[in-house]
Structure formats: C-alpha cells, structure tokens
Amino acid sequence: MLSLLCALLCVSARVSGQLSGREDDGKRYICRAVPLSGDSSCPVTLLPELNAGSQEEELRNTVMQLRETILQQKETISKQIGTINELTTKLSLCASATDDRKYGKEGSWGKEKQNTMGDVPRDPNDTIDSLGKTMQGLKDRLENLEHLRANISGASFPSELRDLLQRRLRELQKQLLKKVSSLEEEKSILSNATAAYRLKTESTLSALVDRISELEKGGGDFKSPELFKLSLPQRTNYLYGRITKSLPEMYAFTLCMWIKSSASPGIGTPFSYGVPEQANEIVLIEWGNNPIELLINDKVAQLPLEVRDGRWHHICISWTTRDGQWDAYQDGGKLGTGDNLAAWHPIKPGGVIILGQEQDVVGGRFDAGQAFVGELSQVNIWDRVLKPVEIQSMANCSAYIPGNVISWLATNVEVFGRGAFKRPLEMCQERLPNA
C-alpha cells in the first residue's frame, strides 16, 4: 500500500513538473499504475493524433457530389420520358392519319374546303421538320450524357457507385440511339410518302385541268353526237372505253373506224368483242412486231394495214360467214382479202364490246401489254358487207354513214380509268393523210 501511494505521487510530480516547465505542445498524457516490480521511471504513453475533422469533410463532399449526380440523372430521365411520350403521340397521330388514308376516308371538293385532297396530308413538311428538331434535341442530350459520363469517370466516387452510374448511362445511351434510329427511319418513310402524295396530287390536278379543258372546249356537248374521239394515252390495263350496246347474231359485218397511234412495238387492241362462250369472238389487235390481226371465234387472219405513223387513218374490215371471206381497207383503198376465216360461224349475240383492251374473260382481265395506245373515233358496225364506194366516201370525207348495229354516239360510249377522255374530234379534212 505504501509503495502504490509512492508511485502515484511520483507520476503526479513528474506530470506537474513537465506542465509547469514548458508550454503546451498539443500532446496529452495519461497516468497508469505501475506494479511494484516495474520500472520506477514512470513511463508515459502518448495518444495518437486525431484527424476526424478532415475525414468527416471528405465524406460530406462525397455525399454532396453523389446527391448532385442523382438529381441530374433524375432530371435527365424525366426529360427523356417526356420526349418519348411526345414522340409516341406524334407517331400515333401519323399512324392514325395513315389508317384514315388506307381505309378510304377521303376529303371532298365541296363543303370541306380545308381538305381538298383527302388522301394528302395538310403539311407533311412541318411534320418532317418537327421530327428533325426532335432528333436534334435527342442528339444534344446524348452529347450531354457523354460529358456527364466523362465527369463521373474523373470524379472521386467509390468504384461501385461509379460503375453503376456508367452502366445506367450506357443503357440510356442505347435507348436514345435506338429511338433516334427509329425516328430517322420514320422520317425517311414519311419523306417518301410525302413525295408519293405530291406526285399523286399533281397527277390528280393534271387530270382535273384536262377535264376542265375538255368541258371548256365542249367535251360534254359536242357540235355533233359523232364528232368526238376516245383518247387512251397510256399502255395500262385500266384505261378503256366500253360500248353500252351489244351485237345481235350476225352472219356478216363491216367494222370501220378512224384510228391514230404511234405506239411501238404494236398499237395494241383497238377493238374486242367477247361473249360468254368465246372471249375472242371479234378482235382487232397488233402486238409486238406482228402485223395487225383479225380474230373471229379465235381464228386468225393477218391484215396488210400500217397505222403506226402517228397520223389519222380510216380503216374498215368486212367479213361474211360464207367461206369466211374477209376484206381490209385503209384510207378508202382495199389492201387485202382472204377467206376461210371462221367459215360458217355466226357471230354470237349478247357480248361486250371493249375499245382499247383485249378481253381474256368477257368484259375484263385485261393485259397492259395488249392495250391500245392512241385515239379512236367513229367506230361503227353494220350487219352487212359495205360496198367499196361507201367505204371510200367515208374515208375521203364526202359522207358519213352511221352503223345500223352500233353507231358512234357520245351516249353509247363509256370511259373508264383516270387519263382516258372523250374529246372533240378534228374536222374530217384535218384527218386526211395528205392534210
């Protein structure tokens, strides 16, 4: 007990002496009991320096940086969600407009004056510009994400958090790149569709202008019922004329017409008559490099006619069932004759007469490669063989003889297909080969 008391006094005296003998050096000392057998020099243990303030400051800075990064990420994601919603709405509107056009929700030329062409968008260029601006905004955000990603890589974040943020940024970049690619494709499709609509609009307007010109020239009220022509300017399977009357049973006939064409190769099919049992009951056709052919009951005779010079020509073909005798006239003169063409076969009644197309079935299934290109007028049919003098008088404009079976009247001819028209016919003297 006495020794323990002496040790405590010793330690106290040494500490007091040191404190009073020099200034405070920033160190702290503690006293501890010394056993009896220990060292009597009273050793002192120093406390380590405490750096709690700097560590706390570093952690606080890290937390603030993480919080700022998370807020930026939230803001970026919010903007991206808004952009995606906006684009989704626009694409839905585009899809809705496309569906409207697809299912025939047409505009009119009447009361709805705001939409004069129902199948043409109002301002397609505005839509394309809007998509372009949206894509530019997305690209700018991609660049911002790249800068943010670079800043994160250089920041003193914990490795786990930095990897997580970089993964999230990569995912966002992939989504934005995919969206930009989708928008680029949509923009390209919309541009192509806009060009197609523009072409269709121009074609429609051109057809309307032609129709107005026709009406202004008196196309709906010709000077005389037979003074009109059928114009078929393109080789298609949908432009043609149709005679509203049919043929009776005939044992002879004469077919005459004025014809003008410069199509090559072959003018096509200016005339075809089909019945339910035979689509090629009477056909006049020139296809490829073959001469003009006359088909009766699908039997063929080649005619020595040449009309591909782009000038008007008057042609007549006569036929009789007796021995299948046929004659071919051009511009008033007989150029060929023959026999044994569907001999003793009567022309069957109740069929369909088509001008400009060859019938594979009665009244339809046309082939564009066999379509007539040019102009036709005064297509008349008689149920007898005309005399050469009658044919010559029509060819040299000294007389006009309407057919007693089919006569060329505006009310007897229907026109089908956009681009096919009935127009006023030139004067007969203007159609003569030497005019």
How is this structure best described in words?
The chain has 435 residues and is of the alpha+beta class. Helix content is 40%, strand content 20%. Strand 10 (312-320) and strand 11 (325-330) form a beta hairpin. The longest helix has 58 residues, at 159-216. The protein is rod-shaped and about 125 Å long.
How far apart are the termini?
Answer: 155 Å
**Whole-angstrom Rg:** 49 Å
Low-confidence sequence ranges? 1-13, 15-23, 44-50, 105-122
Number of strands: 16
- Report the sheet with the most strands, covering strand number, pairing sense and barrel closure: 7 strands, antiparallel
Enumerate how many helices there are, as a single number: 6
Question: Which structural class do the helices and strands define?
Answer: alpha+beta
Strand order of the largest sheet: 12-11-10-5-14-3-16
Proportion in helices: 25-40%
Q: Quote the beta fraction.
A: 15-25%
What is the typical, i.e. mean, pLDDT? Answer: 77
The shape is: rod-shaped
What's the helix-strand series? HEEHHHEEEEEEEEEEEEHEEH
Structure keywords:
seven-stranded antiparallel beta sheet; disordered N terminus; alpha+beta; 20% strand; 435 residues
Reconstruct the topology from this structure.
Elements: H1 2-21, E1 29-30, E2 45-46, H2 52-102, H3 124-154, H4 159-216, E3 228-232, E4 240-243, E5 252-260, E6 268-275, E7 278-286, E8 293-296, E9 299-302, E10 312-320, E11 325-330, E12 333-338, E13 352-355, E14 374-382, H5 388-395, E15 413-416, E16 421-424, H6 428-431
Antiparallel strand pairs: 1-2, 3-14, 3-16, 4-13, 4-15, 5-10, 5-14, 6-7, 6-13, 7-8, 8-9, 10-11, 11-12
Helix pairs in contact: 2-3, 3-4
